[in-house]
């Protein structure tokens, strides 16, 4: 079983991260929403009726746009953005 481990930086979000979060495609936003609910990649693929390869591509693009390195950072950023709205 693989465990996703990363260090969370508590520094204020950079402006570029905030802008990038707003530039997510609708399907990327949907993937991020499912990640925030604790879904595994395989479950996300099944829920969205997409292949695992497509989900991995969405995840890779999400991480790049949000300037994060792991699922935890992406979800923390998403949840903090949701609570600030």
Question: What does the model show?
Answer:
By secondary structure, this protein is mostly helical. Helix content is 66%, strand content 0%. Helix 2 packs across helix 5 and helix 3 packs across helix 4. It is globular and about 30 Å long. The mean pLDDT is 82.
Relative helix content: 55-70%
What number is the mean pLDDT?
Answer: 82
Measured on Cα atoms, how large is the radius of gyration?
Answer: 12 Å
What pattern of helices and strands is seen along the backbone? HHHHH
Strand content: under 5%
Q: Number of helical segments?
A: 5
Query: Which shape, going by the Cα principal axes?
Result: globular
Give a topology summary.
Blueprint: H1 15-22, H2 26-36, H3 41-48, H4 52-66, H5 71-84
Helix pairs in contact: 2-4, 2-5, 3-4
């Amino acid at each position: 079983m693989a465990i996703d481990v990363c260090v969370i930086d508590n520094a204020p979000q950079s402006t570029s991260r905030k802008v990038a979060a707003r530039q997510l495609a609708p399907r990327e936003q949907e993937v991020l929403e499912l990640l925030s609910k604790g879904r595994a990649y395989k479950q996300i693929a099944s829920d969205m009726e997409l292949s695992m390869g497509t989900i991995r591509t969405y995840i890779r693009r999400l991480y790049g746009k949000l300037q994060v390195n792991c699922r935890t950072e992406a979800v923390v950023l998403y949840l903090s953005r949701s609570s600030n709205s």
